[in-house]
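Lab meeting, action items carried over

1. Structure of the two-component assembly. Owner: GW. Status: complete.
Input record:
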Amino acid sequence: MRIALDAMGGDFAPDAIVKGAIMAAREIDEATSLLLIGKEDVVNSLLKEYGYTGNKIAVVNATQVIEMGEHPTKALTHKTDSSIAIGFGLLKMQQADAFCSAGNTGAMLVGAMFSVKAIEGILRPSIANFVPKLKGGYGVILDVGANAECKPEVLEQFGELGSIYAKYVLGIDNPKVGLMNLGEEEGKGTVVVQAAYQRLKANGNINFIGNIEGRDLFNDKADVIVCDGYTGNIILKMAESLYDVLHEKGISDPFFDKFNYEAEGGSPILGVNGNVVIGHGVSSPTAVKNMVLQAQKMVSSKIWERFKKNYNE
Amino acid sequence: MRIALDAMGGDFAPDAIVKGAIMAAREIDEATSLLLIGKEDVVNSLLKEYGYTGNKIAVVNATQVIEMGEHPTKALTHKTDSSIAIGFGLLKMQQADAFCSAGNTGAMLVGAMFSVKAIEGILRPSIANFVPKLKGGYGVILDVGANAECKPEVLEQFGELGSIYAKYVLGIDNPKVGLMNLGEEEGKGTVVVQAAYQRLKANGNINFIGNIEGRDLFNDKADVIVCDGYTGNIILKMAESLYDVLHEKGISDPFFDKFNYEAEGGSPILGVNGNVVIGHGVSSPTAVKNMVLQAQKMVSSKIWERFKKNYNE
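Predicted assembly:
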């Protein structure tokens, strides 16, 4: 398989990305290679500088860079030779099996929607993230920011997408789906959440266990946590900030260390015709490496094809 | 001042409440006394059992108890001699300056609305809570569960209520008001949050600093955090559960210890004609003591009278 990686995206690009790519090259499967997209001379000289002499990394030239603050749609329209545009081109032409970038999140979302596009039958693709579980392993939470507000049927579909993802990528048998709410009882929450509850409950394809609360994020109640992107984004950033506080205080713990964004390295976009992972803007080399390994798992588990099959058979 | 305390409310009532009342009696001001409401014989025998011989606690008889699972409105209508009904009666008749209970939250909210009622001009009273700040002290977050969804004008008013509370109860000069959102930029978030942003920005009575994110809860950006009750409840319960995890792991830290619900002991209802504090269902004696001390601070600062003045002058 070939994993495309944007060498120019992220606050510490291209250095951190090239370093991360070299780390990833040492850990990926024999049959996997990396396509490192960016300004050819810059990327090649960094690979040389960091002493990379292997054959797992190929450099793909991209003369332009979409900056972090640029308007996603405008930037993608004008910068057709940017690393993000090239990456999605490779993904669309199936010259890459996955595309990862720690660059402009909006451009990554828009790029995915304009190139490989949403899977037929998917109402709103979603950005997912990972929730460390006290018993070990991870659950998946979605959405964490692609859709600030969601209709009940969109939340229902997040339950389905998350369920398939938890089963095939996280290897959780019959994953438990919980709806994030302010109380356990049926009938709690906003009108949208109440309607989503009824839809999730009636959905025979998922193992819906009902409402969960903020205190249930890390326990064993649910493997898949369904919420709108406004709520998920707040939860995610709150967890990340708590990791930072613990880290600054010198408190280290295997469970809380998983709150570090580096641990999984990025957030997958679920529901588009391809494997796409968005990294954190501040991505370190370790985060980049883990983002690539996450993409490798997504490709191996044929996750987007499974989503497609689910909605088109 | 007289602070009424429901002896029968909470998972560990009446034992934990009576113990907490005795602890509070040792710490309250000379001029403050407690009205302990519950089954007279039970409460008196517990006071005796725990060796209380002071004159700061008076027992007020209430023959009925509203249980944790009861329907709030039905329970209040039928149990007119319950500790919660009696408590609100005392508050309404100004025989108590504050009423605290760790009992049925719904009954406390409904009781407040039916007895002392919302202050004229207040669209929706709110349950507030406290956010420990890394620099020390607390911020205030509202709503944390009274109103699952809120119109923009309600969120705007939360900004005003929180601002007055932060100034007079927490002693923060010119408190900074932040709107919880999934991004910093104006124009981010749901339609409601976007509209609330514009209203808060145009409000000359508060020091609105714009959107804040999940990562800003504990930093210096905002003293008052405005959000709907769905979001605030999730944030609050997530923080409490993280304290529990740290505690179980034996990790102790002055900042994280403030995530313990016991530290402030309860959540004030803001926007009704009286001082009301709702305790956690699992309230320990320490939590009860701190709930009483919180109520004392609210009475001293004349907080509900200040709210009233703000909307009626």
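2. GW to write a short summary for the group page. Key points so far: The domain at 1-122+271-313 of chain A is CATH 3.40.718.10 (Isopropylmalate Dehydrogenase). The radius of gyration of chain A is 19 Å.
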